Amino acid sequence: MAWRRFHLPRQFRKDIMASSDILRLRINDLCKSFATVDEPLVVLNRLSLELSGGDSLAIVGPSGSGKSTLLQIIGTLDRPDSGTLIIDDTDPFSLNDKQLAKFRNSNIGFIFQDHHLLPQLNVLQNVLLPTIAFGKGTDDQVQRAHELIESVGMTDRINHLPSELSGGQKERVAIARSLVMSPSVILADEPTGNLDANTAGEMTTLLLDLQKQFGAILIAVTHSETLAASMSQQRELVGGALTGSSTGSSTGSSTTDQ
């Protein structure tokens, strides 16, 4: 199944060019622990990170090292014990619950290993889901959804339910859904974990191509060496902090924890 390059409107392309290479995500001294019978389990320990528009980062590390916890905090689905998270000059944890939900919906796109498509909705409706979280989607958003669905090669499946799609097709829908609100940050939790090698390679290429076009930050938690090597940065989460600063298939800035 083929996809085509998504062509952005001229003004939107100008906005993206202006936002690329600008610091858009900053984490400083992030700490998170969980209570246990004996003593607190420290998962994140003064973790710091800076990323600019267009950067892609693979976070690797053993199971239980805190990768998913970090992703949940960046996605504002969980709160740190201490430290700061700034996305586009906004501290999301300073917002009230309603404001935070709107901020998350507008600024953060999610791609889950199990896709999390609603079974009763077709492809178009699933892609449009973020646009109706706080009201009816606009005509421009509907048009954008159609264009994204075309760009991921799913136009001929636009009215199909998730039960009628393969794993790779569901992943394409999830990628389109993550981009429909033009987020600043895209978070992917094992995005190719349930796919065969060929399909995983196709999805990696597709995701990175679209992410670069949109000038968004892409952060992926993965055990896949292939996916990690495709990202502009790879960092390992060890002892609650990000270590290393290797460069992958493209250049990008990074900040190493001290």
Automatic annotation (TrEMBL):
Cellular component annotations (GO), alphabetically ordered: membrane protein complex; plasma membrane
UniProt keyword annotation of tRNA-binding present: no
Annotated InterPro entries: AAA+_ATPase, ABC_transporter-like_ATP-bd, ABC_transpr_LolD-like, MacB-like_ATP-bd, P-loop_NTPase
GO MF assignments: ATP binding; ATP hydrolysis activity; transmembrane transporter activity
EC nos: 3.6.3.-
CDD domains the UniProt entry points to: ABC_MJ0796_LolCDE_FtsE
Keywords annotated in UniProt: ATP-binding, Hydrolase, Lipoprotein, Nucleotide-binding, Transport
Keyword Magnesium among UniProt keywords: no
ABC transporter domain location: 25-257
Family matches, as Pfam families: ABC_tran
Family: Belongs to the ABC transporter superfamily. Macrolide exporter (TC 3.A.1.122) family.
Protein name: Lipoprotein-releasing system ATP-binding protein LolD
Originating species: Rubripirellula obstinata
